[in-house]
Amino acid sequence: MSECRYNVDVVDIVSERREVMQTMHSDLRKEEIVNACAVLYDKYNFKDITIKLISEQTTFSRPSIYNYFETKEEIFLALFQKEYEKWQSEVDEIRENNDSLTKDEFSKMLAHTLEDKERLLKLLSMNMYDLEENSRMERLTEFKEAYGRAVHSVKICLNKFFKDMKEEEVIEFIYSFFPFMFGIYPYAIVTKKQKKAMENANIDYKYFTIYEIAYIGIKKLLG
Fold first, then answer.
1. How far, in Å, CA of 179 to CA of 68, rounded?
2. Residue 198, CA distances (Å) to 126, 153, 182 in order
3. What's the domain range around 146?
4. Do 92 and 52 form a contact (C-beta atoms < 8 A)?
5. Least crowded by CB within 10 Å, which of 36, 82, 160, 184?
6. What is the pLDDT of residue 76?
7. Are 208 and 216 in contact (CB under 8 A)?
């Protein structure tokens, strides 16, 4: 009886290890696909990127990608999630590395977290409806969880550094700041064609960097 139990335990352990290895392998494949998408997105726009193009940047074929992502939108949603998580970790560092901050100091630090997040801001400027509508519920839920963690990170920074802020003021900041982020990229990253069009339209437009736009906006929102 004990030998039989031992054999069952061994089978269970082997099965568990196999599942772990399969999960790790799957995660690595997904990471490779998402990283390939990121490289392409730094060069091209969403509409120009296809699953075939993504597959050419990986070590496996286009049909293999469908084992991990059903649509191009799901790949972009995973990239979006990854970028949110990277940004959130930097927001967390502001809270962890500082005991107190003035509104101006916090505005500068939060703006600096966005300074090198051109990819995240470019994603934010996209039509989110298309990405979400063409993604499975489980993929969309994973993304929303990452978004929720980012929102929470900003909220607890406000709670820590500005204890005099009322709860409704914190909520007002959150619901103003995150939509505000959607517009940073198109205002800061302007093409030659767009600049020429502005000149042709005789619009005297002042161009700001990502940091400058973010800092001005955050400081205004904090009052």
1. 30
2. 22, 38, 21
3. 77-223
4. no
5. 160
6. 97
7. yes
Contact 84, 150 (CB under 8 A): yes
Residue type, 163: K
Tens-place pLDDT, residues 88-131: 999 999 999 999 999 999 999 999 999 999 999 999 999 888 89
Distances in Å between the alpha carbon of 101 and those of 24, 61, 87, 151? 41, 50, 19, 19
Last-in-domain residue among 30, 49, 68: 68
Please state whether the predicted TM-score (pTM) of the whole model is above 0.90. no
Distances (CA, A) of 86 to 15, 89, 111, 153: 34, 5, 15, 12
CA-angle at 167, arms to 164 and 170, nearest 5°? 85
Q: Tell me the average pLDDT of the chain.
A: 91
